[in-house]
Amino acid sequence: MEAIFYESAHLVLRQFNVNDASFVFKLLNSPTWIQFIGDRGIYHEDEALNYLIDSPLKSYEINGYGPCAVILKATGTPIGMCGLFKREYLEWPDLGFAFLPEYEGKGYAYESCMATLAYVREKYRFGGIYAITTEENVRCIRLLERCGFVQQAIISPSGGAERLLLFFSC
Fold it and tell me: What global pTM score does this model have?
């Protein structure tokens, strides 16, 4: 049985499962994922399955949360992911999201982020939620600000040249 975390007007946010490998393969190889999140080296569906097992499914088990599959309520079509990620370099979880290109710019990211934040505030007692993005990802920055996040700093998590904007929301 699918674990539904939250429903909004148009979307269902549910736990990923091993049957989502084909969708995850497509999402992780979409142009905006590669441009703004990075190439995860997922070149075959079996690698997408391993990603699911090692990332979202493992996070549910260890942290009690993780990214959710974002599904259109009307059709049952998976369109993206949205949820919390635990980063070693952050005190609190970080909100992350990504959508297939054909579903960008339609309000689904905002709706899923707000649903995720509502769910998190109901279920967990974190001291806050972080979000990170690149300086070039202007659409993400605007969305985070619209969701109530405020930029706090510029960080380089790996100590290298990568610069990420760090946002925070109570």
Answer: 0.93
